[in-house]
């Protein structure tokens, strides 16, 4: 019997995941958490074989998904973690794998793909949601598991954009030209394999750049 701990701040999501996970009779949910703090405490005291966790949950100690993944990877390097996220884009995929995740599933497809992902990661392999595999093929990304990196100025621009500032306002604030700020925004989106402002803002939220 494969022991699973699930974490999501929405109870209805956890209920659905538990039903899907236990349907085959091969897996059992041995613990549930509603946030990163409760998840960390639960893993410390309840033995499990796989963690299935939401990517962005409110918490005091680990406010962003990457911080949570990194901590789990350092404390339990042999424990597979599957990330379930509503922000299914290449940036999230690459960063999640770069911080130790073994699987990434789009929330829209979680019920269909979760059993397959569990079987895959317990065998020591990685799992990528179908919609993300299609994005990878279209973007021709050679190393999907390498975490994206931004320069300090690019991070600054992304953070201010996500906080609600316009390109013109940022240029005035940091004393750079509008064209420079626009270029830094475009370069950041290219590095992250992100094509829309919505995904850029989601990335900024997930990485803890903005609340």
UniProtKB/TrEMBL annotation:
GO molecular function: DNA binding
Pfam families xrefs: GerE, Response_reg
Annotated Response regulatory domain residues: 3-122
Taxonomic superkingdom: Bacteria
PROSITE patterns tied to this protein: HTH_LUXR_2 (PS50043), RESPONSE_REGULATORY (PS50110)
Modified residues (4-aspartylphosphate): 54
Signal peptide: none
InterPro entries per UniProt: CheY-like_superfamily (IPR011006), NreC/VraR/RcsB-like_REC (IPR058245), Sig_transdc_resp-reg_C-effctor (IPR016032), Sig_transdc_resp-reg_receiver (IPR001789), Tscrpt_reg_LuxR_C (IPR000792), WalR-like (IPR039420), WH-like_DNA-bd_sf (IPR036388)
The HTH luxR-type domain, residue ranges: 143-208
GO BP terms in the entry: phosphorelay signal transduction system; regulation of DNA-templated transcription
Matches recorded under PANTHER family: TRANSCRIPTIONAL REGULATORY PROTEIN RCSB, TWO-COMPONENT RESPONSE REGULATOR
Protein name: Response regulator receiver protein
Species per Swiss-Prot/TrEMBL record: Pseudomonas trivialis
Phylogenetic lineage: Bacteria, Pseudomonadati, Pseudomonadota, Gammaproteobacteria, Pseudomonadales
